[in-house]
Structures are given as C-alpha cells and as structure tokens.
Write a structure and sequence with these properties.
The protein has 442 residues and is α/β, with parallel strands linked by helices. The protein folds into four domains: 116 residues, 3-Layer(aba) Sandwich (Rossmann fold); 95 residues, Alpha-Beta Complex (Glutamyl-tRNA Synthetase, domain 3), CATH 3.90.800.10; 100 residues, Glutamyl-tRNA Synthetase, domain 2 (Orthogonal Bundle); 81 residues, Arc Repressor Mutant, subunit A, CATH 1.10.10. It contains 18 helices and twelve strands. Strand 2, helix 2 and strand 3 form a beta-alpha-beta unit. 35% of the residues are buried. Glutamic acid binds next to loops.
Length: 442
C-alpha cells in the first residue's frame, strides 16, 4: 500500500474518552503500520458547542497518549470550501431547498407510520416552484438543504465489515445545511477528505449509514473516494452501552486516577480483536501488530478491571528512571513498593506509610509481643534483620505463621498487605520501626 493518509476528526465539544480514543488509535496504528500520515481534523462546524479550550484539551489528551499528528486543521476555517462544494451540488440539482418546519416533518413521519410506510422524507420540496419558495422566504422561513440521494444501491468493501450494500431508497435525503445556514458534519467531512486526499476513513460503525450518503457526495464532487473501515462500538463489561459513563472514562479522569497512557492504548487497541489483551510499551509495538483482519464484528467489551490490571502490570515493570519526576521517595522506595500499586497515585499511600509519621495498629494481646520485637531490633537494619527477628520471636514466644508476622506488619505499616517485610523494615529504618512497635507515632 502506498503511504495512506488517515484522519481522526473529533468535535471539540468535550474531552476525549475511551470511545473516541479507540477510533483515534485505529487511525494512528494503521498509519504507523503502513508508513502513512495521520491528520487531526477538528470538526468545529457547530460554533455554539465547540470551544477553543476543548480543542486544546483534545490535543493535550492525544499528546499525553503519545499520538503525533502530521497535520491539523479546523473546519471553522474552511467555510469557503464548503460553500463552493454546496454551490456545485446546488447547480447540479443535487442539493435542494426545503422549507418544512420540524413540526411539519414530525407530522409527516407520524402519518407515514400510521399508513405502515417507512418514515422517509417525501421530497415534496423538489416540486416547489420559484414563486412558492419566494413566498416561504417572504414569510421568514429560511430553507434547509437536502442532498438528493440516487435511490440506487451503494456498495463498498469495508476493511472491517466486508462487503457492504446500502439501499439508498430506504433513506431520507440527508440535510447538509440547516435553516440557519450552518453545516451538519456530512458535507464538510467529504470536502475535507477530498482536499486532504484521505485514503482511508476509519471510524465507528455508527457511521455506516452516513457512509452510504457520503460516498454519493464524494462521487458528486470528485473522483476521489477513500476506502472505509467501520469498527464495532465499545460496550461495557455488562455488554451495555457506555454512553452514559463516557464522562468518567475521559482521558482527563483516567489520567487523574493514575492510569498510564500505554495501559489505555494497549487495552483499546486489543479488545475486540483476535489478539490477546496484553500490555505493550509503545504505540510502535501496537502498530506492528495492527491489522484490520484482526478486528471482530462483535462490540468490543471495555472493562475497567482490565484497565486497572494492565496498569498495575505496566507499573510493576516500570523502572524508577521512567517515573522519577512523578513519584515521591527514592529508587529503593520505588523498587520496593511498585509491585503493590495498581495506579501511580496509590504510591502516595505507601509514601505516607514509609516517609511520614504514623502509628500502626497493635491489638492489646500483641502489645508485649511487639515490645519484644522492638527490643530485639538492632541500631541498624540490614537485609538480614527481618528473618533474624522472626527467628528470634518464634523461639521466644512460640508463635508461628500469621500470628507471628501479621501483628508486626500491622504495627509497622497499618496494612495487612504490602511489600515484603524485610524490604519494608529497611525502608523504615530502626528508629521508626522501634517506635511503631511500641505504639508510638513515628
Ligand atoms: N466529527 C465526526 C464525529 O466525531 C467525525 C466522523 C468521521 O470520522 O467522519 O462523529
């Protein structure tokens, strides 16, 4: 394949969430795999809902994920091009003025349903005379503009879904321009895909029907027609739509929770594919494994538990050098606690335990036992101290198993689980350890 050009086209009406990041990744990974270009298009034709902050936020989110774009542009700066395309379609009779109000269209659809007919736009506006149009406009009605579909069948070979065939006579002619003159995404998207010479449109399968109409618009405007790949949507672990939860699954939220970008990318690139879900350490590695053939037709299940597990796995393999600017403590501290965190933010709990002053938990029946431990501790803790302490307490007190070490762990850390105690004891040092074993804050 000769250097594909793909694009990711978010609307800056919110921050990126796992759903649109998956689409972004499919584009990026394919481009990387094929030596292609990734274009970032900002779909901000909805001037009311789009903001510069969201646009910047989307760019920040992509950068955080390690995604780089070859070129970026926004639709709000290209209205001249869309106007020219609309004029061409109008001149060819493919874009026609309609004057029905929303209520009139609703009423029509209701009547069609009652008559057992599909609620397809009846194209009444095609029969309007110039005088009738002028009369509507004199009344203050501004036209919205519909694209005249061919009524035939549109077919394409979808790189994920295989052969696709859409009967255009089953669809209403899509509105391309609203009554207030603003563009819906349909036409600008085609104009931009032509101008940027996009070779592959890779997006969610909620766009399959749009693709039927857009292919007809491509054909009406140019000789350029990209290939299409529509990927199945993400659903939750319960198989239900994620739409209501997407806010909490934004990159901003996940980053705040301490989820690492490569945990997100690894999961989103692999779920719903024939590959195993495993941690990958770079987008290049994910790209080398990418192929449309591996993407299944069933919805991809996104389970936050998988994300946490992958994140933990990633952190457990992460060296101090990679995180040193983001974590408290030194290299020894990181190497000892990293196996006990799922999210980077969990490290703060261990930092509190090791670096700050606190007192652990000592049950009444363990007070004397812990005092014996405190007395035994040498001035300087070494790698051997913990096993020597345990051996000593075993002979002195006859305790064994959990009754032997758990009171010590609780007294020293306040936790039932954590890093190995010989490491912890060294991190704490003799002074802190002795004080905590005596029930004092240290
Ligand atoms: N802005 C559109 C969306 O987010 C783009 C769709 C497309 O990729 O063509 O749904």
């Amino acid at each position: 394949m000769s250097n594909p050009i793909v694009r990711f086209a978010p609307s800056p009406t919110g921050r990126l969430h796992v759903g649109n990041v998956r689409t972004a990744l499919m584009n990026v990974l394919f481009a990387k795999a094929e030596g292609g270009t990734f274009v970032l298009r900002i779909d901000d034709t909805d001037l009311e809902r789009s903001t510069a902050e969201y646009e910047q936020g989307i760019k920040d989110d992509l950068s955080w994920l390690g995604v780089k774009w070859g070129k970026t542009f926004k639709q709000s700066e290209r209205f001249d091009m869309y106007d020219a395309a609309a004029a061409k379609l109008k001149a060819e009779g493919l874009l026609y003025a309609c004057y029905e109000t929303g209520e009139e269209l609703d009423r029509q659809r209701k009547l069609q349903r009652v008559a057992g007919k599909p609620p397809i736009y009846n194209r009444a506006a095609l029969g309007l005379t110039d005088a009738e149009k002028a009369a509507y406009e004199a009344e203050g009605r501004m036209p919205h503009w519909r694209f005249k579909l061919s009524g035939g069948t549109v077919m394409w070979h979808d790189l994920v879904r295989g052969e696709q065939s859409i009967d255009m006579s089953s669809l209403s002619d899509p509105v391309l321009i609203r009554g207030d003159g603003s563009y819906l995404y349909t036409l600008p998207s085609v104009v931009d895909d032509i101008e940027a010479e996009i070779t592959h449109v890779i997006r969610g399968e909620d766009h399959v029907t749009n693709s039927g109409a857009q292919i007809e618009i491509f054909r009406a405007l140019s000789d350029h027609l990209p290939e299409f790949a529509h990927t199945p949507l993400l659903v939750g672990a319960d198989g239900k739509s994620l739409s209501k939860r997407l806010g909490s699954l934004s990159m901003v939220e996940l980053r705040e929770q301490g989820i690492e970008p490569m945990a997100i990318a690894s999961l989103l690139a692999k779920i719903g594919t024939s590959d195993a879900v495993e941690i990958r350490r770079s987008l290049d590695q994910l790209a080398s494994e990418f192929s449309f053939e591996k993407i299944g037709r069933a919805p991809a299940r996104f389970d936050e538990k998988d994300l946490t597990a992958l994140n933990a796995k990633l952190l457990h393999e992460t060296s101090y050098a990679e995180v040193k600017d983001r974590v408290p403590g030194d290299e020894d501290f990181w190497n000892i606690v990293r196996a006990n965190i799922e999210k980077l933010s969990d490290i703060n709990d261990w930092a509190d335990i090791v670096l700050k002053s606190m007192s652990g938990e000592i049950a009444d029946e363990d007070k004397a036992f812990c005092e014996t431990a405190a007395e035994f501790l040498p001035e300087k803790v070494t790698a051997e101290t913990w096993s020597a302490l345990i051996a000593h307490l075993k002979t002195e007190t006859g305790r064994k198993g959990k009754g032997l070490f758990m009171p010590l762990r609780l007294a020293l850390t306040g936790q039932q689980h954590g890093p190995s105690m010989d490491d912890m004891l060294q991190l704490l040092g003799a002074e802190k350890a002795k004080a905590r074993l005596r029930g004092q804050a240290a």
